[in-house]
Specification:
FomD barrel-like fold, nine-stranded mixed β-sheet
């Protein structure tokens, strides 16, 4: 299994971070599964396993503390760009996030950043519409108890 370069682009604050050092557990045309620790030490989590659904436009992460206790699921909405010649994925964060805690509490994050990014031209109306559609799809999965997707089961941190 070849290991691609993976770049994460955030718009607010703007940054591009190379996350290629994450451990690649699985790769297909539709899914990347990686294991990682936080780039900068954080008190609220230590690391996790991420499931990047390349064609669906989202990444679902299982977050853990330093003692390997599961904390929560975290959903990032993405625009995925792939450069086949360089075997490089650029994951453009489309700002809206969902955090799902054990017990079912759902927290929606950064909707204000989506509005700001649209208003200031950081993202296009098409990217905004795509972000909202994917956000809706994820919420429907959560509320209909079809979350997490089957591909997220069976992986150990």
């Amino acid at each position: 299994m070849s290991k691609p370069t993976v770049l994460r682009r955030r718009y607010i604050p703007y940054e591009i971070v190379d996350i290629s050092e994450d451990e690649l557990l699985f790769r297909s045309e539709e899914l990347l599964v990686t294991k990682w620790t936080a780039i900068k030490p954080r008190p609220d989590f230590y690391g996790g396993i991420s499931f990047t659904f390349l064609k669906k436009g989202y990444k679902i992460g299982r977050f853990y503390d330093k003692d390997n206790n599961f904390l929560y699921w975290y959903c990032d909405i993405l625009e995925v760009q792939y450069d086949q010649d360089r075997d490089t994925y650029t994951l453009n964060d489309l700002l809206v996030d969902i955090k799902l805690y054990p017990g079912g509490r759902v927290e929606v994050l950064d909707v204000d950043e989506l509005a700001q990014a649209l208003e200031t031209g950081l993202i296009s109306p098409q990217q905004t519409a795509a972000s909202l559609r994917i956000f809706d799809e994820l919420l429907k999965m959560i509320y209909s108890r079809r979350f997490p997707p089957a591909q997220c089961n069976g992986w150990e941190y």
